[in-house]
Amino acid sequence: MPLFKPRTRPEILREMIARVIARSTLVGLLRNSVVFHTLAAAADEDAEQYFQLVNLRAVFSIDKATGSDLDERAAEIQPATIKRRRSLFSSGNMSLFREGTVGNLNIPAGTIVAAEDAEGQIKYRTTVAATILDGFSQVIGIGVVALEAGARGNAAAGTIVQIVSRTPGLTAVSNPASFDNGQDREGDDRFRARLKLYVQGLSRGTPVAIRSFALNVQLTDGRRVLFASVSEPVVPTGTYDVFIDDGTGFITETDNGFQFSLDTLISPALGGETNLFTSARPLVPGSLVAFKNAVAMVENVDFVVNTANGQLELLIPLVAGDIVTANYVFFIGLIQETQRVIDGDPGALLTFPGVRAAGTRAIVKAATPIPQTLAASASVANDFDAATVIEQVIAEIQSYINNLDIGRSVIVAEIIERAMAVPGMFNFQITDLSGTFPAVDQFILPNQVARIVSANISVV
């Protein structure tokens, strides 16, 4: 099959002139002649067609397509399966204050508060009505959500302090904890990588497939797995860990409903049963306490447990009439959904068979967050506003560290390079990185993820 080779304008014009001279009595063409200008105009049009053909070829390449063109290629490869993830609104809880403590002060839902950054105000609205009760000067735990989707809505603790709505009696607001769950629309590079991983993982059962399907997990509230890593032991045991993170470093959610009320695994036994399953899964390791006929059983003596699917394998078969119950804590949220995607849905294995290979065990875990701290000194060029430049530097540092994948180390040179790339920076020196001076690279283990909040970045 012949290869497509685009031609340049000089090449096209040169051949046109050669053909005209070869097929006429002309011995040459003057640059100001009518024939030359006619051929030049035709060569321009032909060159433009080649240029558009090159663009068209790039549009149909996963590696070169961008924006909506990349979205269309994804729709062609996996219709309605892989889609670009939209931006998420940042949200959190606020404390509202007033002067005095007399009477009830009602604050309507939709009250607008704001923080300030280099681009101006970032506005948030309260999602519920609030009341500061008689005898109190504040109310806490009032939910707010950013009016603008994306990471710009993330805010450090104590920075949302402006009152935009006119609410009589309301004198101050503050966010006691940082807002970190706002996320920008998925970029081309990350979407392209996720699309390629998904295609490579269609064979299932491989580490690539496990990681690919984990990266496509998204909850109905918009929370999603942004980073995933498969860790296998050097000596294969059939069990491996899948570490995940949503970009915040804190995704562990549990339900203790069965910690204080018994889950009945079988009642009564018919006799001979050796495998039982909990009602909810996956289990928090070490939380399960099982009872047979109200007598506590001993793990690894009376039974072994698979925390991923809540399976208890009894080492001594049950006899008719036995009743087995259990107390335990189980994971919910992203860990639970990722485990379901990898293992499959026990109630619908034909339509949701899972990804892992038969005979293996995948344990989904939250990557351990390793909080980072950074102190640095910066010199700003004379023609730039120092406060604005430093604010941009802090944002760049936070973006770099919080976008590191699981197991990726924090590199001092990378921080310096990103800081110096901010317009107006003259010099930048790290004086302390997570307690090390002079600053050294922070080594992150395969089950860990480095994260930092803006409050822990000091640049002077």
Write a structural description.
Among the domains are: 9-59; 91-174; 368-459, no CATH class. Strand 16 (303-306) and strand 17 form a beta hairpin. Helices cover 24% and strands 26% of the residues. It is of the alpha+beta class. Helix 1 packs across helix 2, helix 4 crosses helix 5 and helix 7 runs antiparallel to helix 8 (412-420). The protein starts with 8 loop residues before the first helix and ends with a strand. It has a 6-stranded antiparallel sheet with strand order 7-3-4-6-1-8, with no helix packed on it. Strands 12-18-14-15 form a 4-stranded antiparallel sheet, with no helix packed on it. It has a 3-stranded mixed sheet with strand order 9-10-20, with helices on one face.
What brief labels describe this structure?
8 helices; 24% helix; single chain; alpha+beta; 460 residues; extended; 6-stranded antiparallel sheet
Question: Quick recap of the structure?
Answer:
Helix content is 24%, strand content 26%. The chain has 460 residues and is an alpha+beta fold.
Secondary structure elements and pairings:
Blueprint lengths: L8 H14 L11 H26 L7 H11 L13 E8 L6 E3 L4 E6 L2 E7 L3 E3 L5 E9 L15 E2 L6 E5 L13 H13 L6 H9 L11 E5 L7 E7 L7 E3 L7 E4 L8 E3 L11 E4 L2 E2 L6 E4 L4 E4 L9 E4 L2 E3 H11 L17 E6 L1 E4 L2 E7 L5 H17 L9 H9 L4 E9 L14 E4 L5 E3 L1
Parallel strand pairs: 10-20, 21-24, 22-25
Antiparallel strand pairs: 1-6, 1-8, 2-5, 3-4, 3-7, 4-6, 9-10, 11-19, 12-18, 13-17, 14-15, 14-18, 16-17, 22-23
Helix pairs in contact: 1-2, 3-4, 4-5, 7-8
